[in-house]
């Protein structure tokens, strides 16, 4: 954030990229003389005078415009903790991180083991990965205001809290390991020169190094020095790194000049601490010294060093190969994010990070390329492999190289220590890991994360127990490669999502560069160490799962939502409804809900029966938009979304405002879904005199989420919905209700009506020790003469019941039972049963067939012909078309009571019953009332019942 004041003393602030972090529809810019403080909040915006609390003014992210003043003078950013520029804040930390322990300690070792050609290939491969990652870093860092946390901040804000938190933790571990690595490199340089048998000491004096505990002591002291510098603060680190970089550059130039100046042969003593050359350490003296050759620049030496000659590393006793040598090289050039890690202290991160990082990477690559070429042309392979510090013997003034070793390694360790502490602080501020990292957020008055620095220092102290640079290097390389792959993945996801707000000012990247960076990182990870890579990926996945299951206290944008939107839109365009086939039919449900407080069981039931299809919960709010200041649907939708989240159902919510329920229902049926995903089935509750109960209270006991607590915003959303009606007053008349069903048929939607679902106890069903049944009665009891025939409604019933038995829980505790209704038990009954069994087998529906005779009920139909005159039984199968089996025919009350008794007699161990729903009569209040009364009469029991009417084929016997 940058602040200015004009000649009148009025402050004006803007974000780093010259614009507010984001602006919602409620935000605006004030162009008059009244300053407006705009918070970075997409849901609200406060008007606060600048005379308010200074702390509030300083902490707010805002954007102020005022009538331009004659003169504008910048206020120093140090007042806000952002004082670092490109060179001190980015270039120097990155360059030092790139030089680290490799420049003076391992450049010759890599050339000696891999040969010049493979060293070139390793340098090119390493810097190819680095440059691809840098391009991604530059793109992300120039796409908005950068806060503290560096790479973690970029990844988490791009990929979302789950992956951001897990990758951030991984990157923090990499910083800790790298800090320890460079401290070990520093101590190695000290002991090679000032230890017993070192370059500046004899074999009988110097710093003791006969045990690993001495090395651990020296490492502890070195790390403590870094701790002191970090405790002083980021600005001190920046000033220190700039000075150290100058020293390192001078020392490097001295090495290059010395190779040209000393163009003659030298015998360079191999240090006595090389136990591979000197296996008998107890009998060493100056007379049995072994030497290696420095030849000066020589074509012969150059040719000898062209190709690889992998041998045993004398510090770890491990056989080297291409992957292990690359790991050692790469572990020392992982400082490209050191500048980004200082984002919280940079004056202008979006400008400093791209320029500083790219220039530092190019500078270090050129340095390494020149230095490796000079070393390969002037030093024998024996010398390169067996002496890590041979360069100081070549140098015109030996202490130059010693100073360079100390400066590069110590500064790199310093950069990782302070960078790691900033990442840990950012993790703590984001509260992703509960309150475990809350101490890491404690800072000094100047903003230095004191506790974070101590935690990072302590963990690095533990890693120092490993003690060997070449032993730590592989795991450091793996962790950094995974971190770089994550940065590339974040940038690739942003690019593929094609979000309009992803428009970085840095344009020299594409999805190709991101993909190449990811591929390169992952290939080298598995080449270096499949074990470390696999463990790291598993750890990252576990952390992502933990963060996914807990309630995250953040409103970050998640790239997953942008990618899902992009892919769904693309595939919806491909999903052509004209190419739909019956073999792949699935229910696309629209459940009409008047009051969710009395419909929770039905909403959950429809969620089970949707079979991965579209499930829309619809509600019509009666009214006119002119009566409201804003659209009331927009205000109600979040509460409905909280409801379905609370119930853990997978549904969409569609609300509409209309002058009548009928008109709103038509809107929902026509508009619910998109493209090839449109509603094909409508579900209503049953219209009867049963008083509704508050089913939402049954779900009030919430199970605590795994790894987290329930979001507090869900604890009071139920108070938003009205209580169920307690009197006989209804929202719909009989005419309106039947009109909705007829509208659904006109719109070519199948319909099912659900009755008594307030009595459905799913928990008891899923806990039952005995098998329960899903019953299907594929017969229109108002047209019993058609009992031997199956139409689309019968098949639709079977399909829905079969889907229910396929669902988790229902599948284990329920079985499908189909009732075959016959006029009388005869020889023909067995044939019908066999035909039905064959038909079900062809449909791949496993069901138990139960034969039921309703011969005793038919007498009630013939006793009063006036009621059933239109239901003459067909004489043959060909006459079935004359009798419309899907229509309703009014039947005598005695017949209805007989049917009800028959059904109740077969309800034993039934969980849900599916029955045939005939079409409503064409018109008339009396017939509508009779229709509902007769449906109610045959289903008057305390048991969940579904009346089904299907319009279209839903199942196929074809392969």
UniProtKB/TrEMBL annotation:
Q: Does the keyword Zinc apply?
A: no
Membrane topology annotation: Multi-pass membrane protein
Name the Gene3D superfamilies for this protein.
Amino acid/polyamine transporter I (1.20.1740.10)
Q: Does the keyword Transport apply?
A: yes
Pfam families linked to this entry: AA_permease, SLC12
Domain (SLC12A transporter C-terminal) ranges = 601-689
**Keywords, comma-separated and alphabetical:** Membrane, Transmembrane, Transmembrane helix, Transport
- Out of the domains of life, which is the source? Eukaryota
Q: Name one GO cellular component term.
A: membrane
| Compartment(s) | Membrane
Q: Which GO terms describe its biological process?
A: cell volume homeostasis; chloride ion homeostasis; potassium ion homeostasis
- Regions crossing the membrane: 84-104, 124-146, 167-187, 216-235, 242-261, 320-340, 361-384, 396-418, 447-466, 472-496, 508-529
Cite the PANTHER family for this sequence.
GH08340P, SOLUTE CARRIER FAMILY 12, CATION COTRANSPORTERS
Give the similarity note.
Answer: Belongs to the SLC12A transporter family.
- Write down what this protein is called: Solute carrier family 12 member 9
- Give the source species: Biomphalaria glabrata (Bloodfluke planorb)
Q: What is the phylogenetic placement of the source species in the record?
A: Eukaryota, Metazoa, Spiralia, Lophotrochozoa, Mollusca
């Amino acid at each position: 954030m940058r602040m200015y004041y004009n000649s009148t003393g009025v402050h004006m602030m803007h974000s780093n990229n010259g614009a507010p972090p984001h602006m919602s529809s409620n935000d605006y810019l004030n162009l008059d003389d009244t300053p407006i403080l705009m918070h970075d909040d997409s849901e609200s915006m406060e008007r606060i005078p600048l005379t308010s609390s200074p702390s509030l003014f300083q902490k707010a992210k805002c954007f102020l415009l005022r009538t331009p003043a004659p003169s504008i003078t910048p206020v120093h950013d140090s007042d806000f903790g952002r004082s670092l520029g490109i060179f001190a804040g980015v270039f120097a930390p990155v360059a030092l991180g790139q030089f680290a322990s490799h420049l003076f300690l391992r450049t010759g070792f890599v050339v000696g083991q891999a040969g010049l050609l493979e060293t070139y290939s390793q340098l090119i491969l390493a810097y190819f990965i680095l440059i691809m990652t840098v391009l991604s870093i530059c793109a992300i860092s120039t796409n908005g205001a950068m806060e503290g946390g560096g790479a973690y901040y970029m990844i988490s804000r791009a990929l979302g809290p789950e992956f951001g938190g897990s990758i951030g933790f991984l990157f923090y571990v990499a910083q800790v390991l790298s800090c320890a690595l460079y401290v070990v490199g520093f101590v190695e340089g000290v002991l090679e020169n000032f230890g017993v048998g070192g370059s500046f000491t004899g074999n009988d004096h110097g710093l003791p190094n006969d045990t690993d505990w001495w090395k651990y002591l020296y490492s502890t002291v070195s790390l403590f020095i870094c701790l002191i510098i970090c405790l002083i603060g980021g600005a001190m680190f920046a000033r220190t790194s700039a000075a150290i970089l100058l020293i390192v550059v001078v020392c490097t130039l001295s090495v290059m000049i010395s190779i040209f100046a000393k163009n003659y042969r030298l015998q360079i003593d191999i240090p006595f601490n090389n136990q591979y050359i000197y296996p008998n350490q107890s009998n060493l003296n100056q007379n049995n010294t072994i030497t290696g050759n420095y030849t000066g620049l020589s074509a012969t030496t150059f040719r000898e060093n062209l190709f690889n000659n992998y041998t045993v590393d004398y510090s770890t006793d491990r056989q080297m190969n291409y992957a292990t040598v690359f790991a050692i090289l790469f572990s020392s050039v992982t400082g490209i994010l050191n500048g980004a890690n200082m984002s919280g202290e940079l004056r202008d991160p979006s400008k400093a990070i791209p320029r500083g990082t790219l220039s530092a990477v190019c500078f270090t690559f050129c340095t390494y390329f020149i230095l490796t070429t000079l070393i390969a042309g002037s030093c024998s392979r024996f010398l390169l492999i067996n002496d890590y510090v041979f360069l100081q013997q070549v140098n015109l003034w030996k202490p130059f190289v010693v100073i360079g070793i100390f400066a590069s390694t110590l500064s790199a360790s310093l950069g990782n220590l302070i960078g790691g502490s900033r990442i840990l602080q950012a993790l703590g501020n984001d509260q992703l890991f509960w309150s475990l990292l809350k101490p890491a957020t404690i800072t000094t008055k100047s903003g230095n994360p004191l506790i974070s620095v101590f935690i990072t220092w302590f963990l690095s102290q533990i890693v120092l127990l490993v003690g060997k640079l070449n032993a730590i290097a592989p795991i450091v390389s793996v962790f950094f490669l995974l971190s770089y792959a994550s940065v590339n993945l974040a940038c690739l996801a942003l690019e593929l999502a094609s979000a309009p707000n992803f428009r970085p000012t840095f344009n020299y990247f594409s999805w190709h560069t991101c993909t190449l960076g990811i591929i390169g990182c992952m290939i080298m990870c598995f080449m270096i160490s499949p074990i470390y890579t696999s463990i790291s990926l598993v750890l990252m996945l576990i952390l992502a799962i933990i963060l996914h299951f807990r309630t995250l206290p953040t409103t970050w944008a998640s790239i997953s939502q942008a990618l899902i939107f992009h892919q769904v839109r693309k595939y919806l365009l491909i999903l052509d409804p004209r190419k739909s086939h019956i073999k792949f039919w699935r229910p696309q449900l629209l459940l009409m809900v008047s009051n969710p407080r009395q419909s929770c069981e039905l909403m959950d039931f429809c969620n089970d029966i949707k079979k991965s299809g579209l499930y829309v919960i619809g509600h019509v709010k009666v009214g006119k938009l002119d009566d409201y200041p804003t659209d009331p649907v927009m205000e109600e939708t979040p509460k409905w979304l909280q409801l379905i989240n609370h119930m853990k159902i997978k549904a969409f919510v569609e609300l509409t405002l209309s002058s009548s329920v009928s008109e709103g229902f038509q809107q929902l049926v026509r508009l619910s879904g998109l493209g090839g995903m449109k509603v094909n089935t409508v579900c209503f509750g049953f219209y009867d005199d049963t008083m509704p109960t508050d089913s939402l209270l049954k779900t009030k006991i919430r199970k605590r989420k795994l790894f987290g607590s329930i979001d507090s915003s869900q604890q009071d959303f139920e108070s938003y919905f009205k209580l169920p009606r307690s009197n006989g007053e209804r929202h719909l008349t009989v005419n309106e209700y039947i009109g909705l069903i007829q509208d659904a048929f006109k719109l070519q939607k199948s319909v099912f009506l659900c009755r008594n679902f307030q009595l459905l106890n799913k928990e008891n069903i899923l806990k039952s020790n005995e098998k329960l049944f899903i019953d299907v009665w594929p017969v229109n009891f108002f047209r019993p003469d058609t009992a031997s025939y199956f139409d689309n409604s019968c098949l639709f019933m079977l399909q829905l019941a079969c889907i229910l038995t396929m669902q988790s829980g229902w599948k284990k505790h329920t079985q499908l039972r189909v009732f075959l209704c016959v006029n009388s038990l005869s020889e023909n009954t067995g044939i019908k049963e066999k035909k039905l069994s064959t038909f079900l087998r062809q449909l791949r529906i496993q069901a138990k067939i139960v034969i039921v005779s309703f011969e005793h009920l038919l007498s009630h139909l013939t006793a009063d012909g006036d009621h059933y005159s239109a239901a003459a039984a067909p004489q043959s199968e060909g006459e079935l078309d004359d009798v419309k089996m899907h229509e309703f025919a009014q039947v005598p009350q005695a017949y209805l009571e007989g049917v009800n008794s028959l059904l109740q007699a077969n309800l034993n161990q039934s969980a849900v019953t599916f029955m045939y729903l005939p079409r409503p009569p064409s018109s008339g209040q009396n017939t509508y009332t009779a229709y509902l009364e007769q449906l109610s009469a045959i289903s008057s029991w305390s048991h969940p019942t579904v009346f089904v009417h299907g319009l279209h084929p839903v199942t196929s016997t074809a392969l």
